[in-house]
């Protein structure tokens, strides 16, 4: 599982994809040995999480409805966070994500991901594959693609268009 991190308001926030579930975003509480954060679930619900002292993997989770999460965010200062997130999003305007299918008859059905040379040819990156409802994060060049796979590809609009063409035409 990959972890991303970045500073928000001077605090290191760790972002962890949870395949099939959503994304965990948390940060350490100063001097307590605990972490606090949220799990943004794919179904739109949010869990508030608070780790046990000294053990970030053992968490107490509180499920919240979208309305409850919005209310809590308002209490915690959501207007400032919304402004900050909007500013961060402007920095990522050229980065897009697209789901591309390996269709029956694709020249890459039954072949290795590395055979596409996707990154070299398009500057787009295949960051995950969804197969039969299961997410396979960060597939390597030795991953064999099959018809029906959904590739999660990140790149510029032009790079994603080129990636789609490669998967169809070779």
UniProtKB/TrEMBL annotation:
GO biological process terms, semicolon-separated: potassium ion transport
Signal peptide boundaries: none
Database matches in PROSITE patterns: RCK_C
Gene3D superfamilies: Regulator of K+ conductance, C-terminal domain
Residue ranges occupied by any RCK C-terminal domain in the UniProt entry: 85-169
One Pfam family in the UniProt entry: KhtT_N
Superkingdom of the source species: Bacteria
Molecular function, one GO term: monoatomic cation transmembrane transporter activity
PANTHER family given in the database record: K(+)_H(+) ANTIPORTER SUBUNIT KHTT
Name under which the protein is recorded: RCK C-terminal domain-containing protein
């Amino acid at each position: 599982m990959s972890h991303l991190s970045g500073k928000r308001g001077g605090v290191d926030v760790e972002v962890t994809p949870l395949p099939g579930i959503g994304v965990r975003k948390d940060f350490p509480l100063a001097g307590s040995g605990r972490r606090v954060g949220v799990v943004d679930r794919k179904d739109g619900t949010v869990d508030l999480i608070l780790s046990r002292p000294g053990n970030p993997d053992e968490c107490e989770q509180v499920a919240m409805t979208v309305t409850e999460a919005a209310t809590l965010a308002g209490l915690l200062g959501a207007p400032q966070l919304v402004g900050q997130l909007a500013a961060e999003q402007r920095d990522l305007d050229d980065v897009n994500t697209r789901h591309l299918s390996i269709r029956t008859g694709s020249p890459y059905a039954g072949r290795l991901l590395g055979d596409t040379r996707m990154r070299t040819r398009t500057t787009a990156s295949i960051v995950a594959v969804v197969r039969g409802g299961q997410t396979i994060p960060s597939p390597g060049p030795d991953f064999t693609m099959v018809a029906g796979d959904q590739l999660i590809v990140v790149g510029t609009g032009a790079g994603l268009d080129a990636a789609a063409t490669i998967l169809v035409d070779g």
